[in-house]
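Database export, one record per block. Field names are fixed; values are copied verbatim from the stored entry.
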Amino acid sequence: MARPHLVPMSKQVITIIKELQNIKADSPYLFPSNTTSKRPIVPDSLRAELRRMGLSKEEMTTHGFRHMASTRLYEMGYKGDAIELAHSEGNKIKATYNHAEHLDYRKKMMNEWADYLDGLR
């Protein structure tokens, strides 16, 4: 991505981040590396954790979480412009001129998504 991408956080995520800040090691990172607190985890850390949990790549991938969220958010009636904001727009003219971030709409969407996930527990 060539531009900053703002991600609204749900109330649940903010609560979890505050809890993590209280227990994290002496590190500037919320998710420090296991080997050194001077670096963050790497993208492969999430994949490796899925494998340690016993999930094969046929069962779940890290990008699979995005697939699930995208599909369910469409089913919940949210607009594609808000769901797919970070992904490139197929319409080059629209992508060039439309830099809307839909923040209020996305805040509502992210809170409803978190509420949905809580309901699955």
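Remark 1: The mean pLDDT is 84.
Remark 2: Residues 61-120 form one domain.
End of record.
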